[in-house]
Amino acid sequence: MTATPGPRTKAPHDGDERTSVTAFLDYFRATLLAQCDGVDATGLARPLAPSTMTLGGLLKHLAYVEDFWFGIVLAGRPPAPPWDTVDWKADGDWDWHSAVDDSPEELRALLLATIERSREVMAAVDSLDQRAAGQHPGARDRTFTARWIMLHMIEEYARHCGHADLLRENVDGATGI
Fold first, then answer.
1. How far apart are CA 30 and CA 7, in angstroms?
2. What would the pLDDT profile of 97-122 be if each residue is shown by its tens digit?
3. Could you tell me the pTM of the whole model?
4. Structural domains present in the chain
5. What is the DSSP string of 88-127?
6. Phi-psi group of 176: left, alpha or beta (phi > 0 → left; psi -120 to 50 → alpha; rest → beta)
7. What is the per-residue pLDDT for 2?
């Protein structure tokens, strides 16, 4: 059983840095899941022209991004399934494209399992100043701090939650999620 990201709770106004950063990230994680809640496979696969982006693609992409930044870069682990067998050279957007083959339940479970692994990685981090154990392939001779990764993930979710707003409205008219 995989834990859910929890309710959409705003960050405390007087929290310390780690509490605040974690709360902002959890808020956006829960927002994306709420925006996709109750949408069937057809809705998750529907793009909003002229883009090919879909709600299902967002769920799978953010699962990949979670695994990449927390698992591979921060913890220095090898990619988790299904990322460990992807031929990224053949399709650099495999996470986006392959989501149409997954059920809503599979996509949600994939993201929730990845969020849980990311939380486990962060639980082992003593300080947001901690340097990543792994390396980003495109960041020559540069390591990232846990702080940078957390802030980047907030940015990643916030941007994609905006996309999800538009996509969800296109699917069934739901707004204000």
1. 6
2. 999 999 999 999 999 999 999 999 99
3. 0.91
4. 17-172 (1.20.120.450)
5. TTT-TTHHHHHGGGS-HHHHHHHHHHHHHHHHHHHHT-S-
6. left
7. 38
